[in-house]
Amino acid sequence: MESKDTATNMRLEMKSDLRAMDPHHPDRSGQLDERFERMEWRIEGAFARLGKQIDGAFARIDDVEARGEARIEGAATRLDRRIDDVCDSLNRRTTESEVRLATAINNFAGTLHDVHRLLQDRFGRRKLPDN
């Protein structure tokens, strides 16, 4: 905001100087040229300061962006690790369940075989009645 006020003040000052000076008078035209050179120098200085401020703002933005990307990458890495842990746990539990189920089926098959043998021993080789 200060640079805008400075520019406005410079313009007002320049207008008043131009009104006071007569450009056709030889002494006044030299003063006018000097005044324009000083104004150009001041404007260039203001542009240089503004450029430095803009560069600083871009540097801060780049820094914030880099930190944000690093945080996102860290979170993604942690999430991937947790997903892998859950998948490993589920695979292990699934395998354990399959082993228990296979053992139960084997035991059940053995029990059926024992019941079949018991029935054969009890009823002999006769044909069993239909239900």
Description of the molecule:
By secondary structure, the protein is mostly helical. It has one domain. The protein has helices at about 1-20, 25-125. Helix 1 packs antiparallel against helix 2. About 0% of the residues are buried.
Question: What's the SSE blueprint?
Answer:
Elements: H1 2-20, H2 26-123
Helix pairs in contact: 1-2
Structure at a glance:
The chain contains two helices and no strands. The protein is an all-alpha fold and 131 residues long. It is rod-shaped, with a radius of gyration of 47 Å.
Main beta-sheet annotation: none
Structural domains: how many: 1
Q: Termini distance?
A: 101 Å
Order of helices and strands: HH
Task: Offer a few descriptive terms.
131 residues, mainly alpha, 89% helix
